[in-house]
């Protein structure tokens, strides 16, 4: 046999040659040193690749951002959904039966069709009526299109008058402007056109984008009333009263998910609104029900017409979270002049591009990156430049002895510091969310947004818990014997509210970080802000880790309790 | 991983309920064993960590669904990587506007802080090997990575949609180029 080529050798060593060729190559290799040396070269490269996978890919690619979910619960969901096709198969079989017995099924089918017809007729009628009525009203209003009219807007706390057309809050005076601005936000979030809220066109546009809705049309002596309620979006119920003679909308009522309500009435053009009691005479007195006054958080109301809301900011955070840019990256988010400013210093150009692209689709966002190298990252305890520099320290020498030598100690130090970094980035991320979403701001979030905020928090907390547990697993065997008896984990939080709890959690993580730095020689044990002496460090560290883990658990529980 | 047949083993003689129980356990065990490998493979395809993690889970759920339907899968690990590969490319294609994930490995490899146990020489070698890997063509790299995950040539071939002999050729070229990088 001639010398096998390189591919044959590779296939041979991979066991991918057909049987006869394998034995041929095998006997050739016995005879030929040259080919054996070539094969050895191949194996060496294979070995280098395997080492590359272990040392580079496994060690340096980022760990999964969240703990793995329990896959059994997903199995259960799948099982539940798989049952359905078999049910529908049975159903189809049942349907197929009459085909072979036409005499028996014909009358039944007719009856069924009639019933279905009736059902649809009754079920669809109000919505057909509603859209017909609205369409007619839109046509009628087209005749006087572009003519702004004066409307009076009443909320539980304020009454404001404004002209329709592009929202002009600027015309109004101080407190009215604030009210108008917050109303604009409310309507905009509900996908309802605020420029002309009292119009069939705006009502219809809102109604058409709803996934599920129920309509009702009622007729009075000289008015029609269309009412639509839904479960989707921020606006749960709206109604529009139209004058029978010309189908002009004269009154609208809007009820929002956060229990705010708004009533809008048309004010006759030729009469000054403030001296016209008749214009509102037909308005029924508002139902006597609990309502919340509008939040007037000055930070959410800015002079610009387009006002970025706290909800917009939350969505920015969610996008950054998706990219992992709320961890480690020196990215800051602030709200300024009605816009959300995402800024960062010294971020790699590709990363900048990536962040920018991801934020593109969000409203009212400005991205500002600068090149300066003075990173704006929060201050952290620095990792030791060279852990082996502290050979003289007795504590480290003892731990080194415990783990089987200096090399192992250094490796342990590297692993621990690898974990410390992401752990602290989670703690910082949680604290930032607490800073950016004070109680007042949180109250303005709708329930979907609130859920999103909780999800972000929970993911950070879960990762923090996982990293803490890993640190514990790593350190326990090494520290058990050099620390005395470990103290029991302390009580959980001093308050029932998640914001102070976040701060306590953060401080607890900081404490762990500090102790790690002391233990692995990155910080002196007797620094003025540290009351722990070197002897106690291992015991303190284990106790603090246990405490941090307990706190994370309590925190998760706390978050669950604050769901609306 | 040995190539055994999960589906046949489970839906053969055993009763239906018990089969479902065992199936869950088997897939769950495979999930624990292989999820990190699949996750890293997806990162190497350019998925960002959160997406890669989500896709990883999805792959194992698909395995479960497929086995549950009574399909016979000869080598689950090969199947998993094939599905992961295709799913990963689909996800990448959907967000072509976003830059692919780049772990900036090279910078990390050079960093003494992250690799304190390596000598300067070793670090340089690792970096050079990494650069050689980066220098491979896309198909060469994919073949190599899948082979590193334990897939046989026909499995790699079906994941990448090429022939088994093409896999042999890609691997040969990859090895030849890496050999130079090693020196």
**Shape of chain B, please?**
globular
Q: Largest interface by residue count?
A: A-B, 55 and 56 residues
Low-confidence stretches of chain B: 7-18
Strand content of chain A: 5-15%
Name the helix and strand elements of chain B from N-terminus to C-terminus, one letter apiece. Answer: HHHHHHHHH
Q: Can you identify the CATH class of the domain at 1-101 in chain B? A: Mainly Alpha
| Average pLDDT metric of chain A | 76
Give the neighbour order of strands across the main sheet of chain A: 2-1-7-6-5-4-3
Binned, the helix content of chain A reads: 40-55%
Rg estimate of chain B, integer Å: 19 Å
Polypeptide structure, described:
The complex is a heterodimer of chains A (564) and B (183). Residues 270-305 and 373-392 of chain A have low confidence and may be disordered. Helix content of chain A is 52%, strand content 12%. In chain A, a hairpin with a 3-residue loop joins strand 1 and strand 2. Chain A has four domains: 6-60, no CATH class; 124-296, outer membrane lipoprotein receptor (LolB), chain A (Clam); 299-377, 2-Layer Sandwich (Histidine-containing Protein, Chain: A); 379-561, no CATH class. Chain A contains 15 helices and ten strands. Chain A is of the alpha+beta class. Chain B is mainly α. Chain B has a domain at 1-101: Rna Polymerase Sigma Factor, Chain: A (Orthogonal Bundle), CATH 1.10.1740. Chain B is built from nine helices and no strands. Chain B has helices at 6-11, 16-44, 49-68, 76-94, 105-110, 120-134, 138-148, 153-160, 164-182. Chains A and B meet through helix 1, helix 3, helix 4, helix 9 and helix 11 of A and helix 2, helix 3, helix 5, helix 6 and helix 7 of B.
């Amino acid at each position: 046999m001639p010398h096998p080529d390189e591919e044959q050798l590779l296939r041979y060593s991979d066991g991918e040659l057909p049987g006869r060729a394998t034995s041929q190559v095998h006997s050739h290799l016995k005879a030929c040193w040259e080919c054996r040396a070539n094969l050895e070269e191949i194996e060496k490269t294979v070995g280098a690749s395997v080492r590359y996978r272990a040392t580079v890919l496994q060690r340096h690619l980022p760990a999964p951002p969240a703990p793995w979910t329990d896959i059994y619960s997903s199995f259960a969901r799948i099982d539940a959904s798989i049952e359905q096709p078999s049910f529908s198969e049975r159903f189809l079989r049942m349907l197929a039966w009459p085909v072979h017995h036409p005499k028996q099924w014909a009358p039944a089918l007719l009856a069924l069709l009639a019933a279905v017809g009736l059902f649809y007729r009754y079920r669809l009628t109000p919505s057909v009526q509603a859209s017909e009525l609205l369409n007619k009203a839109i046509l009628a209003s087209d005749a006087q299109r572009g003519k702004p009219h004066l409307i009076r807007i009443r909320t539980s706390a304020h009454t404001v008058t404004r002209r329709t057309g592009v929202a002009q809050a600027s015309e109004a005076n101080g407190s009215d402007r604030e009210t108008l601005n917050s109303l604009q936000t409310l309507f905009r979030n509900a996908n309802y056109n605020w420029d002309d809220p009292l119009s069939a066109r705006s009502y219809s546009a809102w109604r058409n984008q709803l996934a599920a809705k129920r309509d009702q049309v009622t007729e009075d002596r000289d008015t029609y009333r269309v009412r639509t309620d839904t479960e989707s979006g921020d606006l749960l119920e709206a109604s529009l009263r139209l004058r029978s003679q010309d189908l002009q909308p004269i009154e609208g009522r809007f009820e929002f998910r956060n229990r705010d309500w708004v009533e809008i009435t048309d004010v006759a053009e030729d009469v000054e609104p403030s001296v016209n009691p008749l214009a509102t005479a037909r308005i029924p007195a508002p139902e006597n029900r609990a309502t919340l006054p509008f939040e007037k958080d000055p930070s959410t109301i800015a002079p610009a017409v387009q006002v970025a809301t706290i909800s917009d900011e939350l969505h920015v955070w969610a996008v950054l979270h998706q990219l992992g840019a709320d961890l480690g990256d020196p990215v800051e988010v602030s709200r300024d002049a009605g816009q959300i400013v995402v800024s960062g210093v010294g971020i790699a150009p590709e990363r900048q591009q990536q962040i920018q692209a991801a934020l593109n689709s969000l409203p009212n966002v400005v991205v500002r990156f600068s090149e300066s190298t003075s990173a704006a990252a929060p201050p952290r305890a620095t990792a030791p430049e060279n852990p082996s520099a502290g050979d003289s320290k007795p504590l480290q020498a003892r731990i080194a002895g415990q783990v089987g030598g200096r090399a192992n100690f250094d490796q342990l130090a590297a692993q621990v510091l690898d974990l410390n970094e992401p752990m602290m980035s989670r703690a910082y991320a949680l604290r930032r969310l607490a800073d950016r979403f004070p109680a007042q701001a949180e109250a303005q979030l709708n329930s979907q947004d609130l859920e999103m905020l909780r999800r972000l928090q929970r993911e950070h907390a879960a990762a923090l818990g996982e990293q803490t547990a890993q640190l514990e697993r790593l350190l326990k065997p090494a520290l058990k014997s050099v620390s005395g008896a470990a103290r029991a984990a302390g009580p959980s939080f001093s308050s029932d509210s998640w914001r102070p709890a976040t701060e306590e959690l953060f401080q607890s993580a900081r404490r762990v970080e500090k102790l790690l730095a002391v233990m692995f020689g990155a910080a002196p044990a007797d620094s003025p802000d540290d009351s722990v002496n070197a002897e106690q460090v291992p015991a303190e560290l284990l106790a603090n880790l246990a405490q941090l883990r307990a706190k994370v658990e309590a925190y998760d529980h706390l978050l669950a309790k604050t769901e609306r | 991983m040995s190539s055994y047949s999960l589906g046949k083993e489970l839906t053969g003689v055993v009763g239906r309920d018990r089969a479902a129980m065992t199936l869950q356990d088997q897939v769950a065990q495979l999930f624990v064993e292989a999820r990190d490998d699949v996750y890293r493979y997806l990162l190497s395809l350019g998925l960002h960590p959160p997406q890669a993690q989500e896709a990883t889970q999805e792959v194992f759920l698909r395995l479960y669904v497929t086995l549950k339907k009574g399909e016979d899968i000869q080598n689950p690990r090969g199947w998993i990587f094939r599905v992961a590969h295709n799913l990963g490319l689909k996800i990448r294609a959907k967000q072509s506007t976003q830059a692919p994930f780049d772990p900036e490995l090279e910078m990390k490899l050079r960093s003494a802080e992250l690799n304190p146990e390596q000598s300067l020489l070793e670090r340089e070698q690792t970096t050079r090997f990494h650069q050689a890997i980066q220098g491979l063509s896309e198909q060469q790299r994919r073949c190599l990575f899948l082979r590193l995950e334990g897939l046989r040539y026909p499995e790699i071939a079906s994941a990448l949609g090429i022939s088994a002999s093409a896999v042999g050729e890609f691997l040969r070229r990859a090895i030849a180029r890496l050999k130079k990088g090693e020196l």
